């Protein structure tokens, strides 16, 4: 989301871990099934058809606006839909992926070098949470993400386009050992929620009304996406697939960026697991 949801934390080193035989073939097969399911997607039609006077919950202390113009709504939805489609195509392409990290708990990160020489990273994990719980944490209550993820300073919804689309401003936290430094992000986030799966997509956007902020380097997400699917044998658990595609900008060595990004994915997933565990205890 969104991943837009990774935030750059910690140091640059991480132990080299073993490869997992057959992992890429399995992951590609799963992603291929998701692409097939997504071909029947109708979220776009549903969102564009939302009434112009639809009321959204609003906190007056937030710099948030509801997009009422049909043309503006369509623009943001198209940007989100395009980002989702392009990110899924990256995942669907099975060529060139290599295992970067394989954790003892089953989390695996693979990487791939794109034609523009940028590396993208794909994380595969199984989480102890339902599709609805994860959708709520990662999209519906995105502004609360800093409460459970210390690598995020803030996320604010600037434009609420509709139930499935929003424009957000995000700032990463200034944490010890973070050699990349603080970054801010301006992104369109888009979602599609079905019965047993959720797709979350995102991409950087430029707005004249919200230029880069003083004191930050504005990084760019996307296209990126997250796929959350209920496990067939246990609907209380979900398969979590995350394509991280980010240009951190600034004058940083590529080697530092390519070590920091997968580490940030692991850190984010660890914080997400802790949040799910707290919810399970309280519930």
UniProtKB/TrEMBL annotation:
The START domain, residue ranges: 93-281
GO molecular function, one term: cholesterol transfer activity
InterPro entries: StAR, StAR-like, START-like_dom_sf, START_lipid-bd_dom
SUPFAM superfamilies attached to this UniProt entry: Bet v1-like (SSF55961)
UniProt organism field: Labrus bergylta (ballan wrasse)
Catalytic activity reported: cholesterol(in) = cholesterol(out)
Protein name per the record: START domain-containing protein 1
Keyword presence, Transport: yes
One GO term of the biological process aspect: intracellular cholesterol transport
Metabolic or biological pathway: Steroid metabolism; cholesterol metabolism
Subcellular location: Mitochondrion
Domain of life: Eukaryota
Keywords: Lipid transport, Lipid-binding, Mitochondrion, Steroidogenesis, Transport
PANTHER family (alphabetical): START DOMAIN-CONTAINING PROTEIN 1, STEROIDOGENIC ACUTE REGULATORY PROTEIN, MITOCHONDRIAL
Subunit structure, interactors included: May interact with TSPO.
Alphabetical list of Pfam families matching this protein: START
Xref: PROSITE patterns: START
